[in-house]
Write a structure and sequence with these properties.
The relative contact order is 0.35. The chain is about 30% helix and about 50% strand. A four-stranded antiparallel beta sheet has the order 2-3-1-4, covered by helices on one side. The protein is built from two helices and four strands. The chain is an alpha+beta fold.
Length: about 90
């Protein structure tokens, strides 16, 4: 198990219910593969450096988790399938 950090930029037009749904899916992607989430920080809505899919703002979420290194590619693929996720980045700590 290694420590990872996941930064996700989510569609700013989602309401609170939509954000909680995306957060549940994000947690599910990690926990279903045997990972454990250590910390989740919701930074809120912030301005993007450049437009992404015609959005000038995004909801930022920073997640710290532990997972087997071989399974991070599956989490990455799962995040690509979520339409509400504008960008994401997984970094090994």
């Amino acid at each position: 198990m290694r420590d990872y950090e996941l930064m996700v930029v989510i569609n700013p037009e989602l309401d609170d219910e939509g954000m909680s749904t995306i957060m549940d899916k994000l947690k599910g992607l990690i926990t279903e593969r045997g990972g454990s989430i250590t910390d989740v920080e919701q930074w809120g809505r912030r301005r993007l450096a450049y437009p992404i899919k015609r959005f000038l703002e995004g909801n930022y979420v920073l997640t710290h988790f532990k997972m087997d290194p071989n399974l991070t590619n599956e989490v990455d693929a799962g995040l690509r399938l979520l339409e509400a996720v504008l960008r994401h980045l997984i970094v090994r700590l």
